[in-house]
Inverse folding.
């Protein structure tokens, strides 16, 4: 499992006011370059069409420009409304420094990789020295 | 005498114990967590692992394979699902096992077009608007084209989610769309949150379907709708035979030729056969607490949409 430490990032301040499009940088989705190469060719054509179609509501800044596998993207603030710990169903705290969602009671932290929170209990990291009170159960 | 009887009785009880164990083993599911992977029998843990690997392998070619296996008809099935859902702007959807985002994108398109029609209708009804009010209305459409609708795509497989995110980027979907890595049997969402829960061609791959259905019930708001699109059983004998022929002879070959993966598509076909038929799934959904559960067969039962409400 990818540790949060590998994806340490300074998250960009989210300016998601109202329905305005947040101008986030294109995601650094790590992944097979070959897969992306083929997908990009297909995507370029569709990207152009989408850009023309999406004149009314500008969506992504530039889908073509691709940064390398950059630091993990921060979490969308709207998601935090819904997310809870899958084990205890208690609310989570978003930790900006490590880009994780922390469950204080159980002492576990779920990593956020490329903007996708990994809410699988086995992937969670224990934040305390000793194992948490409730062991991470098998789903 | 009693001493003589006692070892005899002990022997009998031991034999009975062994017989019970044998019966339990024969019954299978109750005692040990044994389940199936296609036509093989495996433990639950093994099944999860194998299924994860299947989708890890097929993630990149998933859409291409869907198109070639179903001759593009899977698009129609998914369209029908979203039309049946008939979401209005402001709907919160959770799409579980939604991997590459097919349902999510359709949902966003649908809601966007409904919203446009709403705004046009509003304009048409107010004939005496000033120029200022008309331009404000257009601005409203521009700033909130989805009407606060949102869809959360949840999948257990990282590769499928990554493929979905890339597709979203290419097609230009960004607003109202979120991605979460989670397990359908243990959703990381709070109670009473979503208006609609969909699971399209995913519930077949869940190891504990009853848990997934319970979680679906939990995260839905009262009045929320559960929709499940899944391969099901064909009752027509002639069609069934043709379908079997196609499934077992053509699909794995396509899998090998297009995706270089015979085994995954063999699993796919077998898992369809192992999945409970329409009525049984309906009973399972009712067990989870849903009411007004019903199903609609598409293509004579090759695919079925099950629907239930949390009331």
């Amino acid at each position: 499992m990818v540790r949060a430490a590998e994806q340490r990032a300074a998250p960009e301040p989210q300016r998601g006011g109202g329905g305005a499009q947040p101008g986030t940088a294109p995601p650094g989705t790590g992944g097979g370059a070959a897969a992306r190469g083929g997908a990009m060719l297909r995507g370029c054509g569709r990207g152009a069409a989408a850009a023309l179609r999406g004149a009314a509501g500008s969506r992504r800044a530039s889908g073509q420009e691709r940064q390398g596998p950059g630091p993990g993207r921060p979490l969308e603030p709207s998601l935090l409304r819904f997310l809870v710990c899958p084990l205890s169903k208690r609310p989570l705290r978003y930790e900006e420094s490590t880009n994780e969602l922390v469950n204080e009671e159980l002492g576990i932290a779920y990593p956020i990789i490329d903007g996708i929170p990994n809410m699988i209990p086995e992937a969670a990291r224990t934040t305390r020295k000793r194992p948490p009170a409730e062991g991470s159960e098998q789903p | 005498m009693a001493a003589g009887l006692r070892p005899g009785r002990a022997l009998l009880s031991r034999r009975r114990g062994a017989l019970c164990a044998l019966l339990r083993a024969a019954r299978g599911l109750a005692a040990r967590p044994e389940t199936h992977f296609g036509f093989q029998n495996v433990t639950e843990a093994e099944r999860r692992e194998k299924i994860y690997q299947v989708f890890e392998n097929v993630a990149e070619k998933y859409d291409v394979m869907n198109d070639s296996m179903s001759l593009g008809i899977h698009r129609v099935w998914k369209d029908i699902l979203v039309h049946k859902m008939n979401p209005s702007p402001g709907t919160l959807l959770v799409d579980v096992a939604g991997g590459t985002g097919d349902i999510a994108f359709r949902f966003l398109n649908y809601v966007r077009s409904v919203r446009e029609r709403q705004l046009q209708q509003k304009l048409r009804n107010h004939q005496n608007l000033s120029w200022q009010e008309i331009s404000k209305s257009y601005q409203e459409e521009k700033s909130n084209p989805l009407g606060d609708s949102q869809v959360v795509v949840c999948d257990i497989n990282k590769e499928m989610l990554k493929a979905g995110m890339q597709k979203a980027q290419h097609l230009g979907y960004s607003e109202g769309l979120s991605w979460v890595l989670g397990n359908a049997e243990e959703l990381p969402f709070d109670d009473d949150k979503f208006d609609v829960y969909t699971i399209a061609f995913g519930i077949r791959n869940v190891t504990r379907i009853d848990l997934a259905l319970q979680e679906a019930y939990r995260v839905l708001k009262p009045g929320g709708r559960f929709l499940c699109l899944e391969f099901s059983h064909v009752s027509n004998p002639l069609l069934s035979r043709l379908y079997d022929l196609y499934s077992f002879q053509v699909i794995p070959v396509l899998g090998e030729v297009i995706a270089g993966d015979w085994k995954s598509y063999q699993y796919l076909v077998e898992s369809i056969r192992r999945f409970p038929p329409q009525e049984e799934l309906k009973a399972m959904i009712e067990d989870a607490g849903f009411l007004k559960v019903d199903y609609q067969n598409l293509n004579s039962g090759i695919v079925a949409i099950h629907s239930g409400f949390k009331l």
